[in-house]
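User: I'm new to structure prediction. If I give you an amino acid sequence, what do you actually give back? Let's try with this one:
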Amino acid sequence: QVQLVESGGGSVEAGGSLRLSCAASGYTAIRNCMGWFRQAPGKEREGVAIIYTNDGWAYYADSVRGRFTISQNNAENTVYLQMNDLKPEDSAIYYCAADSPCRGSGLGTGYQYWGQGTQVTVSS
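Assistant: Good question. You get back a string of structure tokens that encode the predicted 3D arrangement of the chain. For your 124 residues, that looks like this:
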């Protein structure tokens, strides 16, 4: 059973930065995918960024490309989301998700495993 624990959320002013972390445990597959998703009040959960943990290939939603960076530390089974130039519309609960093994879900929300979420609030 894969377990995901997120940390790093908080409140920041527009233009500021935050870094989210997601520590994973329980992987048994060779090819795993991890991603960050977010859900704002009254909106559907949406994909933000994903990474294939075996080769580091990453993909971003258009709304965050160029501002957010997903990265990993394979030795610690941890994935990060560096968020720069934050905007009020980035405010949401951010969730880490994983597929083990990868099933090609991309930015869709059909991942097998989910963290508990961490709140990000950006004030104008």
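You can read the tokens as a compact description of the fold. Here is one thing that stands out. The mean pLDDT is 93.
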